[in-house]
Amino acid sequence: MTHHPSPGHGVTGWISALGALLALVNVGATCTPSAEQQLRAARDAMYRGDARSAIVHYEQAVRIAADDDSRGGQILRARALREAADASYLDLREPERAAGLYRELIQTEPATAEALEARVSLARILRVDFRDLRGAIVELTAAIARQPPGTARLRYELAKLYFELGDYAQCVLEAEALLERHAAESLADRATFLKAEALAMIEGRGSEAIRVLEELLKRFPSSELQPHALYELGRMRADAGDLEAAIEEWVRSLKTHPHPEFIQSAIVRARKRLDPGSSPSDHIAAAILANAVLDGLSTLRRANLLDEP
Predict the structure, then answer these.
(1) Alpha carbon of 168 to those of 1, 163, 171, 188: distances in Å?
(2) For residue 64, what is the domain's CATH number?
(3) Sign of torsion, CA 55 66 81 77?
(4) How open is the CA angle 52-54-60, to the nearest 5 degrees?
(5) Could you tell me the pLDDT band of residue 11, with boundaries at 50, 70 and 90?
(6) Which of 110, 107, 59, 49 is nearest to 80 (CA)?
(7) Which pLDDT score is estimated for 185?
(8) Cβ(280)–Cβ(272) under 8 Å?
(9) Contact by Cβ (8 Å): 291, 251
(10) Structural domain tally of the chain?
(11) Which of 60, 160, 184, 232 has the fewest CB atoms lying closer than 10 Å?
């Protein structure tokens, strides 16, 4: 005899299956989001301009990824920390929070590319926001040790930090290291100028500073630093007591200096020291005439300010 399932038995089976399906749905709904999901949520919040909410998701991503020792977990954790630190500094304007996140990244994931970038960013915060020049030097030195792309720029920034700190001898050494290892870089003229400025601040090395500036003028004839180097060269000659030579350098810089009135004032002061009895207008006229002569008198001729012979 053939047995057919009763209608009640079929309904019961469907109810059991539906209950199991709902249970699976509930389990999925109550699962904690993964680190990847939290990172995506943070980026979505940043896209919406909600940096505060993004920080919460970044922190959750870091917390969840902390239990993942795989390479993928390390990369995700480093990215979340870096992006959270960037958002804290650039969007929320909270340098203290940003510095803490950068330090956490450097400490927990020191070998990652994000940690290298974090050191550079942390150095900038320490320098600009906290005026912790020594701390900034430590971070930049550690970044340079990894020899990343753009090392020349980092060395230049390091040299500038030593100059700000007043450690002029170390500034000279860093500038020389840049010039020795990155001679072809576009920063070579700036490093040379910085080296001369640092030498000028060290007692007894003024003549070296002058030689370095003279080298800059010869080696980088098209550099935008030319007029500034000429002004500094004149200032150094004036400090050494050679006012005539100083005036010559300043007259040369008049043609291209972005602030010629500043140079003219320096010339006036120097001429007044040379000839205390003359009037200021005489000094200004002499400076303008000297510049015109240096430029072939063409400017004055075109303006009909000088009679043709």
Answers:
(1) 107, 5, 5, 18
(2) 1.25.40.10
(3) negative
(4) 115
(5) very low
(6) 59
(7) 80
(8) yes
(9) yes
(10) 1
(11) 184
Handedness of CA 27, 28, 29, 31 (dihedral sign): positive
Give the single-character DSSP code of 223. Answer: -
Residue 280 has pLDDT above 70, yes or no: no
Q: State the amino acid at position 16 in one-letter form.
A: S
In a domain, residue 91? The reply is yes
Residue 169 to residues 165, 192, 193: CA-CA distances in angstroms? Answer: 11, 14, 15
Q: How many residues does the chain have?
A: 309
**Residues sharing a CB contact under 8 Å with residue 223, sequence separation 6 or more, in sequence order:** 189, 216, 229
Q: Is residue 142 part of a domain?
A: yes
Q: Is 226 contained in some domain? A: no
Residue 275, pLDDT score: 83
pLDDT of residue 276: 76
DSSP codes, 205-252: -HHHHHHHHHHHHHH-TT-TTHHHHHHHHHHHHHHTT-HHHHHHHHHH
Could you list the residue range(s) of the whole structural domain that residue 133 is in? 35-148
Q: Render pLDDT for 190-234 as a digit per residue (tens, 0 to 9).
A: 999 999 999 999 999 999 999 999 999 999 999 999 999 999 999
Evaluate if residue 86 carries a pLDDT over 60.
yes
Cβ neighbours around 169 below 10 Å, total? 12
Cα–Cα nearest to 163, from 131, 198, 199: 198
Using 50, 70 and 90 to split pLDDT, how confident is the model at 277? low
- Average of pLDDT values for 169-177? 97
Is residue 15 a part of any domain in this protein?
no
pLDDT(77) > 90: yes
Per-residue confidence (pLDDT) for residue 83, from 0 to 100: 98
Q: How is residue 165 written in tokens?
A: 């700190």
Give per-residue burial for 5-33: e unless 16+ CB within 10 Å, then b.
eeeeeeeeeeeeeeeeeeeeeeeeeeeee
User: Can you spell out the DSSP letters for 28-43?
Assistant: HHHSPPPHHHHHHHHH
